[in-house]
Specification:
Strand content: 15-25%
Number of helices: 18
Bound molecules: adenosine-5'-diphosphate
Largest sheet: 9 strands, mixed
Helix content: 25-40%
CATH architecture of the largest domain: 3-Layer(aba) Sandwich
Distance between the termini: 19 Å
Number of domains: 2
Shape: globular
CATH class of the largest domain: Alpha Beta
CATH superfamily of the largest domain: Glycogen Phosphorylase B
Number of strands: 20
CATH topology of the largest domain: Rossmann fold
């Protein structure tokens, strides 16, 4: 099969979150399983042409290759994409995001024709690419080149929907009739994600549990009804991680490499973090790490609510993240109140992320909701034990450790309140203090694998189903 991935984020070129990991890694796994893949993304300012051997093919498009022969196309538009941020700057979202991503969607389809790449499947990701299914269903339907193409639309995070005032509808270059209940209309505004869900051939999301949750009123972000109406076409496929990038034995970013057989190096990384963050060098205190976007989703309000209880415990806690100003302030305040125990690094810092995964004993991930989550899988890879709320992909990957039967791979709280969270942190600290139990748990953690190969096989089955099934 020939598949085009269209996404606003793809590693190693542009990333703000997990979607970039998915769109840079899944194509390579699919290629290894014999599929022909191309990737299309915007040509943002930060992308280094020299480093990646990117060459211009025309005024609107440049290209390079990754993997064995995955062709990557960059949609070029100096006014729209030559900016520092992907979606906004420190003043907030860019005011022309609708125009920017409308242009991207239209141009992505045009490029396919220009380079004569008649793909079977166009795989779209989140609201930024949500116009593509509608373009293929309506304005391009009569064009023989596009007629047979099927669309798969992956929702990485239902909370981000691409909502714009209805007065902007003409900019979408779609018939006004599509601004309706069964189309892009959403409480009298434009909702791009909704259109993506409605006009694609299949909808996927990134874990089975999240696929169920988004069809409920509680986590459906007001689109649960739309998703329920297409429930037979909504599928959850768990993300994987790249086990070569995230590899404690060969990781070039960390202070000392280690493995499950030779774990001493892990503690060199822990000491490095303790020194870097000016913590007392205590071996007996567990070090908790947090790596993530600083947003409501990631559960920082709960940490803040519980900060005095946490501050009284014998532990250390490092936050690495960037995001909403409100959360920058919140965690800075926590760190200044408990400076011997809590430290922050408010940056997007790849190297430090590797260090936090490698050097922490436990990984804090109390997300309110979590479509899949990669950080808990990465942590396990480094023998770092996740502490999570039972939701979405966290529920599908982490189960409570039971010291009696040795089952489980982390600490899970099931009620989203301060008491349950604090109890889980206490249980983790207690387990850490019992060296025998904790080392058993760490050894177990190393054994878990969430490989892209398994997920890629599920995507292939879905693409095939899509092509054999005209609906
Ligand atoms: P989300 O997609 O909701 O942001 P995920 O857990 O799926 O969350 O993926 C987050 C990815 O981004 C992980 O690879 C994580 O290591 C990385 N990441 C998040 N914040 C930072 C940061 N400040 N510095 C470096 N990497 C980060």
């Amino acid at each position: 099969m020939k598949i085009a991935f269209c996404s606003s984020e793809v590693i190693p070129f542009a990333k703000t979150g997990g979607m970039a990991d998915v769109c840079g890694t899944l194509p390579l796994a699919l290629e290894q399983l014999g599929q022909q893949i191309i990737i299309i993304l915007p040509f943002y300012r930060g992308i280094d042409s020299k480093k990646y051997g990117i060459k211009k093919i025309n005024e609107h498009c440049s290209t390079t290759k990754i993997g064995k022969s995955v062709q990557v196309y960059f949609i070029d538009h100096p006014v729209y994409f030559e900016r520092d941020g992907l979606y906004g700057d420190n003043k907030g979202d860019f005011s022309d995001n609708l125009e920017r991503f409308q242009y991207f969607c239209w141009q992505a389809l045009k490029i396919l024709k220009q380079v004569d790449s008649k793909v079977d499947i166009v795989h779209c990701h989140d609201w930024q690419t949500a116009l593509i299914p509608a373009y293929l269903t309506f304005p391009l339907k009569g064009d023989g080149f596009y007629q047979e193409m099927k669309t798969v639309f992956t929702v990485h995070n239902l909370a981000y929907q691409g909502i714009f005032p209805k007065t902007e509808f003409p900019k979408l270059k779609l018939d006004r009739k599509l601004f309706e209940r069964e189309g892009f209309e959403f409480y009298d505004q434009i909702n791009l994600l909704k259109g993506g869900i409605i006009y694609s051939d299949r909808v996927t999301t990134v874990s089975k549990q999240y696929a169920r949750e988004i069809q409920t009123q509680k986590l459906g972000c007001s689109l649960d009804g739309v998703l329920r109406s297409r429930k037979d076409l909504v599928v959850g496929i768990l993300n994987g991680i790249d086990y070569e990038v995230w590899d404690p034995q060969n990781d070039p970013w960390i202070e000392k490499n280690f493995s499950w057989e030779d774990i001493e190096g892990k503690y060199t990384n822990k000491n490095y973090l303790q020194e870097y963050f000016k913590f007392p060098n205590q071996k007996e205190a567990p070090l908790f790490g947090f790596v993530g976007r600083l947003s409501y989703q990631k559960g920082l309000d709960l940490v803040c609510e519980a900060i005095d209880e946490i501050g009284r415990m014998d532990l250390q806690l490092v936050f690495l993240g960037v995001g909403e100003k409100k959360y920058h302030k919140l965690i800075k305040d926590m760190a200044s109140r408990y400076s011997q125990k809590i430290a922050v690094h408010l940056k997007y810092d790849e190297r430090m992320a590797h260090m936090v995964y490698a050097g922490s004993d436990l990984f804090l991930m109390p997300s309110v909701y979590e479509p899949c989550g990669l950080s808990q899988m990465i942590s396990l890879r480094y023998g770092t034990i996740p502490l999570v709320f039972k939701t979405g992909g966290l529920a599908d990957t982490i189960t409570s450790f039971d010291s009696a039967d040795g089952q489980g791979n982390g600490f899970v709280f099931t009620k989203y309140d301060k008491e349950s969270f604090v109890d889980a942190v206490k249980a983790a600290v207690k387990a850490y203090k019992d060296k025998k139990i904790f080392s058993k748990l760490v050894q177990r953690a190393f054994q878990f694998r969430f490989s892209w190969k398994d997920s890629a096989k599920q995507y292939i089955a879905l693409y095939e189903q899509c092509l054999s099934n005209h609906n």
